[in-house]
# Entry
Amino acid sequence: MKGTVLGIEGTAWNLSAAIVNEKDVIAEVTDTYSPATGGIHPREAAQHHARYASTVIRKVLEEAKRKGITPSDIDAIAFSQGPGLGACLRTVATAARMLAIKFNVPLVGVNHCLAHIEIGRWKTPARDPVTLYVSGANSQVLAYRMGRYRVFGETLDIGLGNAFDKFARSAGLSHPGGPKIEQLAKKSTNYIPLPYVVKGMDLSFSGLSTAATEALKRNSLEDVCYSLQETAFSMIVEVTERALAHTGKNEVLLAGGVGANMRLREMLDIMCSDRGVSFHVPEKRYMGDNGAMIAYLGLLMYSSGDVMSIENSHVNPNFRPDDVDVTWLE
Amino acid sequence: MELTNGAEATVKLEGGYLTKDRVAKRYRLRELDERIRKERTKAESRLMSEARRLGIPTPIIYDVENSVIRMQYIPGTPLKHVINDELSERLGKLVGLLHTGGIIHGDLTTSNLILYNDRLYMIDFGLSFMNCGVEARGVDVHVLFQTFESTHHDHKSLTEAFCRGYRHVFTGADEVLDRVTEIEKRGRYA
Ligand SMILES: Nc1ncnc2c1ncn2[C@@H]1O[C@H](COP(=O)(O)OP(=O)(O)OP(=O)(O)O)[C@@H](O)[C@H]1O
Ligand SMILES: Nc1ncnc2c1ncn2[C@@H]1O[C@H](COP(=O)(O)OP(=O)(O)OP(=O)(O)O)[C@@H](O)[C@H]1O
Ligand SMILES: [Mg+2]
# Structure
């Protein structure tokens, strides 16, 4: 594998551009949209990305130049093609197309979920893991089998991060709610029963989030945060363990913004050591949405000849990871 | 003799019968863990017998104690290793019968069916519950189709064969199968 790729991420709240080669991340510049009130407003997020795209790209090119990499060294432009908010995706794709034309290099459309997995495989010792990917909008358990990353289990309604954020809003906490729930949960050891919903390998979080809001009427915020975390994390760790049993794989990789949570990591760590499998967590900067992961999977795809024409570079808000033929693994 | 160390239970063969023990999970809070194991053991023993009354082959239950069930051992082959269109159609009929009787299996995978003496036995009722709603039935079938997709390469014809069997015995089949298509399409982005 050889080459230098510029990648742009912008599926939701984070706009981030990075330049990577096969050795390392050369430069990364990020500009985060944070809503003034409530959760993410898709139109506002897209406006944010449109306003700052050229600045972020200019800065990342400047940063790379200081390290001796110039635009003429760039072999391809990668962008997050989906899944994500349609308006955000279109803004980022437009910026990527313009750059590809300007530098006269191919475009690579990257699946955002797979980028989370591949950067984890790059930056940790994990080789063929079961990946637990838990972010705001997504909650999936994936593993590679016969040419594709298969989805072994996933949420049937909302992602875990969004369920946390929704509950947090109802409790008067500001966005994003996940980190605040983690801090409050540390102050309690009093478990209040909440609905534990596992359906086969799939999960449901929206009922849990509503029940937690209900429980606030009779219990302290700390106790509800604690119980919400314990219930939700037990569900996803259970499904991860089942995927291990079914696939026979012996590594777990954690990805996505919710993966920052230390209680979740502790539970996964216990499950993995009890099963005798290894557990891998990338550095925090590679856990949430980041440009480096898009550039890196872009590099893998570019190296295997997996590029696209401008005409075929439509975004896909519901882009599923198991729709992608994996061209970059043997 | 230990048969498997599945995700949630240890399954042992002792004196001709099978013992399924839902072991404690250290990663879960004790009280949550105990609640889940107790609920699932109870659901499994109750609904496994209920399903047999509906005409679905299931192991006979000899004894239930806390989180341990002793049941008949079915010395067959997991459906996972032998599935073809004909067996998938038969599975469709079994699930149709189950749903007609108001039971949701909750964990339909090709590992949870055993082919023995040309009969298809259904096992692992730990996530089962009673429900006659389209959504619950739809999710039940969706979970199965997902295993077809993630573990069997000819999943399209298996899915079609399943639907034939399911429609054959269950009058509400079309509505449920439409819902399955809708569940698959549900975007994760609001
Ligand atoms: N310490 C934490 N505990 C729990 N949840 C957290 C924590 N830190 C962040 N989160 C949650 O992570 C989510 C953000 O995740 P991420 O950075 O992957 O963004 P995203 O836009 O939702 O990603 P994707 O596009 O991959 O779905 C938010 O819902 C936030 O509440
Ligand atoms: N009555 C039985 N006769 C023969 N084999 C059985 C029987 N019950 C269970 N098994 C075997 O043991 C395995 C695990 O059993 P079961 O599915 O009930 O446990 P589990 O821990 O809930 O599994 P998982 O959570 O991985 O689905 C089955 O896949 C099957 O191979
Ligand atoms: Mg089973």
Observations:
- The mean pLDDT of chain A is 96.
- Residues A 242, 245; B 3-4, 6-9, 11, 18, 20, 59, 71-74, 78, 107, 111-112, 114, 123-124, 126 surround adenosine-5'-triphosphate (ligand 2) (CB under 6 Å).
- Residues 116 and 156 of chain A are 20 Å apart (CA to CA).
- The domain at 4-116+286-323 of chain A is CATH 3.30.420.40 (Nucleotidyltransferase; domain 5).
